[in-house]
Design a protein that fits this description.
The protein is mainly alpha-helical and 91 residues long. It contains 4 helices and no strands. It has helices at 6-22, 28-35, 39-48, 72-79. The longest helix is centred in the first third of the chain and has 17 residues, at 6-22. The chain is globular, with a radius of gyration of 20 Å.
């Protein structure tokens, strides 16, 4: 497990106390709002403490990086020559 700074340990303790009182079955944004921290900070601390599995996945973000898919609009933009030919890969 990664070493946490004293400040991150204090934040982790606040998160733990809040989740102990209100339950772990909440999303990261809900926890962040409850403890008054940024979502990215709460997410990072949960990852460092290996607590991600305790919380509910967010409806907006499930931890996966979305893939880029070409659609008809992309084809229209490419046909106008908005991108160099080297970036026009077959999709």
């Amino acid at each position: 497990m990664a070493r946490l700074s004293p400040r991150s340990h204090a934040a982790a303790y606040l998160i733990w106390c809040d989740c102990k009182d209100h339950g772990w079955e909440r999303t990261v944004p809900e926890i962040a709002q409850s403890v008054g921290m940024q979502v990215n900070r709460v997410s990072r601390i949960l990852a460092l403490k290996q607590w991600q599995g305790r919380v509910r996945k967010s409806d907006r973000y499930d931890g996966l990086i979305p893939t880029m898919m070409r659609n008809d609009d992309d084809a229209a933009i490419l046909s106008m020559g908005a991108l160099p030919r080297s970036m026009m890969a077959a999709g």
